[in-house]
Automatic annotation (TrEMBL):
Entry keyword Oxidoreductase: yes
Residues covered by the Ketoreductase domain: 17-188
Protein's name in the database: SDR family NAD(P)-dependent oxidoreductase
SUPFAM superfamilies in alphabetical order: NAD(P)-binding Rossmann-fold domains
Xref: InterPro entries: KR_dom, NAD(P)-bd_dom_sf, Sc_DH/Rdtase_CS, SDR_fam
Coiled-coil ranges per UniProt: none
UniProt superkingdom: Bacteria
Pfam families: adh_short
Keywords: Oxidoreductase
Similarity comment: family membership: Belongs to the short-chain dehydrogenases/reductases (SDR) family.
Length: 298
């Protein structure tokens, strides 16, 4: 355990607790780890990127907490289950699981191969399911458990070219809301939070898979589309982590991260048909502008 485990210290909700985080090697996962470490929370970190994972662990250990690491592919159920059991053994308990690991893919429905469907869903959906089920018994045993599942702004609105990502993130939302109600019915000491980030400045866009079919939808090729998305990433991982952890403290059911997530959530709630027509109109205009630009350059 960490050196100072007095959880009664005012304002130290996380002090003396143990948090497991997937996708902890960078971005939101690393930011969550460091925020928690500053509040004296011990950590079990996992990522598929060993180098990024070890850097996150080093930074957290420098803050004086116990940190264990595991290179885990969240799409591998056996690996996730083994990590959960080892975490409970190493730390003596587990209070929180942050199912944060994820990947991105830009492609039309027709242009997406079944292999890419399976690749993304195995990580973004099954990874969340595996993480939740593997850690839930340990969270219940702790008497003060928290499941934090990262959905997305794209778990609230459908976007052309994001059908696979939408599929996963809408499913995470439904799965998480259902679990929350089950825990409420059981009067169980496990809180369940669904997180809907908007554009966060992480490397998920840079590492996203892009299919050439995206051009017919958004009017730009894969690299141009990547650059356009990059401009929409306004919220820093640090700010995102701060918002998420405030929601954990409040035992919220869901949290929107970023002004873009809040705006589009309102738009789809009050104008569920209009927002779709609006997106189609904007993308058609972009595609037409791109075609005119291409003709002018020839």
């Amino acid at each position: 355990m960490s050196k100072h485990s007095d959880s009664s210290v005012p304002g130290r909700f996380f002090s003396g607790k143990v948090a497991a985080i997937t996708g902890a090697g960078s971005g939101i996962g690393r930011a969550l780890a460091l925020h928690l470490a500053r509040e004296n929370c011990d950590l079990a970190l996992s990522d598929i990127n060993a180098a990024g994972l070890e850097e996150s662990a080093r930074l957290a250990r420098d803050l004086g907490v116990q940190v264990t690491t595991a290179v885990v592919d969240v799409a591998n159920r056996d690996a996730v289950e083994a990590w959960a059991d080892q975490t409970a053994k190493d730390h003596g308990k587990v209070n929180m699981i942050f199912n944060n690991a994820g990947v991105a893919l830009g492609s039309s429905v027709e242009g997406t191969s079944y292999e890419n469907f399976e690749w993304l869903l195995n990580i973004n959906l099954w990874g969340v399911i595996y993480g939740t089920k593997a850690f839930l018994p340990h969270l219940k045993k702790s008497g003060d458990g928290h499941v934090i599942n990262v959905s997305s702004l794209f778990g609230l609105v459908g976007i052309p070219g994001q059908s696979v990502y939408n599929t996963a993130k809408f499913a995470v939302r439904g799965f998480t809301e259902s679990l929350r109600q089950e825990m409420d019915i059981e009067r169980c000491n496990v809180n369940v939070l669904c997180v809907h980030p908007g554009g966060i400045k992480t490397n998920i866009n840079a590492s996203a898979r892009m299919d050439s079919s995206i051009k017919s939808l958004v009017g730009s090729d894969s690299e141009e589309t990547r650059q356009s998305f990059e401009k929409l990433l306004k919220t820093t991982p640090d700010d995102a982590a701060d918002i998420i952890l405030k929601a954990v403290r409040r035992k919220s059911r869901r949290v929107l991260v970023g002004s873009d997530a809040k705006a589009l959530d309102l738009l789809q709630r009050f104008f569920p048909a209009f927002y779709q027509r609006l997106i189609v109109a904007v993308l058609r205009m972009r595609a037409a502008k791109s075609r005119r630009k291409a003709l002018a350059s020839n």
